[in-house]
Amino acid sequence: MNEIKKCLWALKTKLEETYHDAEWGVPIYDDAKLFEALSLELCQSGLSWHTILNKREGYRAAFNQFDLKSVAAFDDAKIEELLLDAGIVRHRAKISAIINNAQCILNVQQEYGSFSAYIWQFTDNKTLVGNWQSKEEVPASTDLSILISKELKKKGFKFLGPTTTYAFMQSAGLVNDHTTDCFRFDACK
Q1: CATH value at residue 17
Q2: Which domain holds residue 107?
Q3: Into how many domains does the chain fold?
Q4: pTM to 2 decimal places
Q5: pLDDT tens for residues 5-41?
Q6: Catalytic residues
Q7: Quick check: is 142 in a domain?
Q8: Under 8 Å CB-to-CB from 80, ≥6 apart: which residues?
Q9: Which runs of consecutive H residues, i.e. helices, occur in the chain?
Q10: CA geometry: angle at 166 spanning 162 and 172, to 5°?
Q11: What is the helix (H) or strand (E) element at residue 128, kind and residue range?
Q12: For residue 186, is it within any domain?
């Protein structure tokens, strides 16, 4: 019997495996879903991905299903409320960054029509394929993630260094970093 091959990181927990099998690397074009991916990746910084996936529904509830206009309007009182919410990681700088980034995405939408159009222009509107044989080959950041991080910062985005930006690119399908032996590799090309 042939065993289905998967990226090794996805085998840590059932939650990570389910996310890997259904979502990771699948191209996202919807601005609210891109905002969610961007927000979850910035929240993951310094923590395990499992921790963030475990709190994903809490984030969705706390940030109104990642409705951009709603989140962009959050004020200091809302930040204080969120700091008491056990359903999310209670980190003031990360919460503030999510709100700030919602405001930045609204500005990008005014300029480019959508955040999707803006972010996908960096890959010429196609998924970049890693063709990695092993997880050790997969980079933590690339020249492109460094460039995108700098461009996002110029537009006022926060908490999005090159490594976090690259993780966002992977999750949103801008890059396909499934290893070549993973059953999802061809599906996400």
Answers
A1: 1.10.340.30
A2: 8-176
A3: 1
A4: 0.97
A5: 999 999 999 999 999 999 999 999 999 999 999 999 9
A6: 19, 41, 49
A7: yes
A8: none
A9: 14-22, 31-44, 49-54, 56-62, 68-72, 76-82, 92-112, 115-120, 143-154, 162-171
A10: 145
A11: strand 128-129
A12: no
